[in-house]
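Support case: flavin-adenine dinucleotide complex. Customer-provided input:
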Amino acid sequence: MKPDLFEAPDYYNLDELLTDEHKLVRDAARQWVKREVSPIIEDYAQRAEFPEQIIGGLAEIGAFGPYIPEEYGGAGLDQISYGLIMQEIERGDSGVRSTASVQSSLVMYPIWKYGNEEQRKKYLPKLASGEWMGCFGLTEPDHGSNPGGMITNFKDMGDHYLLNGAKMWISNAPFAQVAVVWAKNEEGRIHGLIVERGMEGFSTPETHNKWSLRASATGELIFDNVKVPKENLLPNKSGLGAPLGCLDSARFGIAWGAIGAAMDCYDTALRYSKERLQFGKPIGSFQLQQKKLAEMITEITKAQLLAWKLGVMRNNGTATSAQISMAKRNNVEMAIKIAREARQMLGGMGISGEYSIMRHSMNLESVITYEGTHDIHLLITGLDVTGLNAFK
Ligand SMILES: Cc1cc2nc3c(=O)[nH]c(=O)nc-3n(C[C@H](O)[C@H](O)[C@H](O)COP(=O)(O)OP(=O)(O)OC[C@H]3O[C@@H](n4cnc5c(N)ncnc54)[C@H](O)[C@@H]3O)c2cc1C
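Agent response - structure generated as follows:
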């Protein structure tokens, strides 16, 4: 792969909106990605393997629980810092960002928000340091966009719960020590349970043959009469709103992360357009190529503003789920379109692993589908503005 020459576009000087702490956090993550992710990621993606050696580095840049309080091992940062870290990691690879998002927003967040003090103290410091990795089991073979229909269930056996069912498309599943699993009790109410690797009847087969997020490990969670200790139930929130609260946090991170992927594609295409000669001129001097670049930087700038304002609202505690949903949908669609245009600008080289664009393009096909598909997010905005439910 080519050396990482990335220079971040900031057309509206949005750095002015960031604090010194934001910039420090962002720059540390940016340098780490250049040093530790860019040189190896293409090789791992080609081999469809997660680079486990980067776990320690992810923990060091604060990617595991950026906004979790320091008393639990988190970085104690604000939401904009969290977003900037996700942006920088996804600039390297969406699969690596997925690993960090799952750990922070889908595993640490529910333990912090819905767990009790013993659960927080037992799990959060180990998850923050990367000693333990986690995964989040919501999607099932027959229930993806409609998780409320889930059939995974648990029964109260007196001194423990008995868990049965299956989850699929679960990021980090093949190597996670801890799974936050959503299942229905005998009354049909959804609860979160912490399931640990090694519990009898719990297995995590890996999902192969992915053309997307190849550097992220994906798998199933299978529960065959798993005895879960009663103290592993998350006591402080139940119902579908509990997993959806986690998705709010993860979708916010994706809204920022997608900007990173788009910035990398734009930066690569811009540099290439000045170096690649055809008809005796740089291809960047042709109007059709300039149109692509002009549209890319415009869309990136709009997405940056959207993410920053959403970060301010998240910091204030005023961002609604529908506002977060809009930013996730808009920014991922923006990134996928830019990846496609940038790939074309590199001609044949655009499909080569010498450059990051094709990998970003394929990765974003998962990002536009997970954490709510593009269509589902359109329905969320539609419901919010009309008050009319078009889901069913
Ligand atoms: C690489 C990867 C990693 C993932 N990681 C995780 C994870 O860690 N944890 C987890 O729980 N899940 C994870 N997922 C699952 C992901 O969240 C689901 O794939 C997603 O929610 C869509 O569900 P589905 O695949 O069952 O598609 P379906 O729900 O079957 O949707 C199929 C199509 O129908 C459309 N559709 C569905 N309902 C409607 C409707 N009412 N109106 C209009 N159109 C509709 C959808 O938009 C989509 O286009 C991951 C997925 C991938 C690909």
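The chain has a mean pLDDT of 98.

Case will auto-close in a few days if no follow-up is received.
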